[in-house]
Amino acid sequence: MPIENFESALRAAYAETPCAVLPNPLWRTLRHLADFTTAYSQREGQVNALEAQNAEGLYIYWTRTDRRSGYLMRRKLDDTRFAIVHQDYLEPDVVAGFVGRQAHFRLLHTAEVAPALPDGLSWADADPVQAEAIAAFIARCDPTFQPTAETVRTWAGESACAPDLWLWAQDAQGEPVGLAYAERDAALPEAALEGVYVRPDWRKRGLGRALVSEVVRRAKASGAALVTVAGAVEDRDNPGAFFRRCGFSGRDVWWYLSR
Description:
Elements: H1 6-16, H2 18-21, H3 26-30, E1 37-43, E2 46-53, E3 57-63, H4 71-78, E4 82-86, H5 92-95, E5 100-109, E6 122-125, H6 131-141, H7 149-156, E7 161-170, E8 176-185, E9 190-198, H8 207-221, E10 226-232, H9 239-245, E11 248-258
Parallel strand pairs: 3-4, 9-10
Antiparallel strand pairs: 1-2, 2-3, 4-11, 5-10, 5-11, 6-7, 7-8, 8-9
């Protein structure tokens, strides 16, 4: 791919190491590029650095080499009230200078893990048009997240919505006991696992891993070259450890910093 502008540079770098370049799927960043002031450099045909910011803050910062905190990064963060920065460029005292500090992991699926669906359960399509049922199920599984049907409809309206990657696990009576869904960017192609929910009475039986495995299988069967997942590092349920048991790996952590 010839590097002719910032978007092509971003695509090239992201294809190499997606979780180290951006904290989220590429398509989400591309739709906001017009809002950013961007810069990139290349060396010997390879992208060497990327940067995107606006009046609010720093949204993209990536370098191929010298991935460490330094004077330049400190100067950049001194002049911004918001930043999304990879952990490689930060030191504890720099992070401490921000009032808002949230760390999010981003992992890439690298190993096949195929746990069996628990006995008595079967798969069923979770069509996004079932917005009320999906929202109610998520709220039942996670008291800290209470999406409305309209929220689910918003997800379904995204350009990367992939209805074939939304699925229920249901019992013999057809009642849902688990839900998982992912987005897919056909242009890259990439799939991003967005949600995994298990009804409280069905936890600790391997259903969560089975849900993840089936979504990943479907995503790869549909042509996704890579599957990613992200989540909060300090979540009480420790989702990072769970997703690693499901075949995801990596060390990339992104900090969302605000003054």
